[in-house]
Amino acid sequence: MSSPQAIPSAGRPLSAGAIALMLMLCLTWGFNQIAVKLVLPDIPPMLQAMIRSMGALPVLFIIGSLRGVKFFEKDGTWKPGLIAGLMFGIEFVLIFQGLRLTPASRAVVFLYTAPFFVALGSYQVLGERLGGTQWLGLAVSFAGVALAIGVPQPDVDAKVLLGDLMIVGGAALWAATTLVAKGTRLRFAAPEKALGYQVATSIPILGLAAWLFGESITHTPAPLSLALMAFQAIWVVGTTFTLWFALVKAYSASKLSAFTFITPLFGVVGSYFIMHDTLSLTFGAAAVLVIAGLFLVNRPSSSAAAPRDALLNVTKT
User: Fold this and answer.
1) Does the global pTM surpass 0.85?
2) Burial of 34 (0-12, 13-18, 19+ CB in 10 A)
3) CA 150 – CA 208 distance, rounded (Å)
4) DSSP state of 72
5) What DSSP state is assigned to residue 231?
6) CA distance 10 to 305
7) How far apart are CA 271 and CA 121, in angstroms?
8) SS3 at position 5
9) Which of 18, 24, 51 has the alpha carbon at shortest distance from 234?
10) How far is CA 39 from the centre of its chain?
11) How far is CA 289 from CA 141, 185, 273, 281, 285, in A?
12) How far is CA 262 from the centre of its chain?
């Protein structure tokens, strides 16, 4: 048993470069939701998620190998890596299946409860406590997301509520995966290796889910669908998810997670240009709320406690 360690980056504010990178990630993830919808007529959701993980795995190996990452070195990361992978796979099963039961307008609001789970878990796992200003910022950004999506439909039944619960479960697992990557020996692994555990473990989970839900590809996918699958595998999973875990290792998990509130706003804007959806003044007000909330989250707070020492019990294997 090694000595418990504190995490120096737990309270570190985001630099201008980190903020710019997070904006790029959120832009990508917002468009990815559109890509998933465009591919659905050709490839069902669980198979789509499985195929993109299968395509992303060699990308991670190539990038990591070029950077000298030792994927199979015994460094005590396989246990947290396996745990993160199980959560990563189940997360996507819950989110995709929850979308079958609840309207997208409700789902996106519940999905972006994830930063609250990260903020709550960060205090216990990372010694990272948000001050009153940061909690206010989370609330303001979440209100902006809810305003952008609009008022949920009134006809809510048990089926819809089950879908809502599945989406919240996916959000909680998203947060838990972030905390595992930050609060265990996995934080010492290269980002490609940390993500490699998750992508590799998710493949059988998503494949089993596709079989259980009776999914199949009934015809040859269109060229656009194949191109969008390549985009998801190579860029979204293989590249942006790797960058996300690199940022998680270096900066405050709570503050990074708060920036994901921007993702659905980019999704709405992308839908306007690609699917010709309409934008309104309400969306403009929502964007202002999200940006204001993120400003508050990343603002230094004297009431936020410094990272506590002796937080992590790290076991060497």
Assistant:
1) no
2) middle
3) 35
4) T
5) I
6) 10
7) 33
8) strand
9) 51
10) 20
11) 6, 37, 22, 13, 6
12) 12
The residues facing 312 across adjacent strands are 5
SS3 (DSSP) at 112: coil
Using alpha carbons, select from 25, 50, 70, 46 the residue that is nearest to residue 235: 25
The radius of gyration computed from the CA coordinates of the chain, to the nearest angstrom, equals: 19
Whether the CB-CB separation of 49 and 92 falls below 8 Å is answered with yes
Q: Which two tokens stand for residue 281?
A: 């003044």
* Residue that is written with structure tokens 């989110």 in the block: 95
Angle at the Cα of 179 (from 49 to 73), degrees rounded to 5? Answer: 75
d(CA 190, CA 22): 19
Residue 265: CB partners within 8 Å, gap ≥ 6? 30, 144, 145, 148, 283, 286, 287, 290
Q: What tokens were used for 180?
A: 């595992």
Pairwise CA distance, residues 206 & 130, whole Å: 35
pLDDT (tens digit per residue) in 152-206: 556 667 887 888 889 889 989 988 998 898 888 888 899 999 999 999 999 999 9
Tokens of 238: 């293989």
d(Cα 163, Cα 167) in Å, to the nearest integer? 6
pLDDT digits (tens, 9 = 90+) for 248-289: 888 887 778 778 878 877 877 776 777 665 666 776 777 778
Residue 54 backbone class (left: φ over 0; alpha: ψ -120 to 50; beta: rest): alpha
What does the block give as tokens for 251?
A: 């900066």
Structure tokens given for 53: 């993980």
Other CB atoms within a 10 A radius of the CB of residue 120 amount to: 15
Q: Quickly tell me which residue has 């996916």 as its tokens.
A: 170
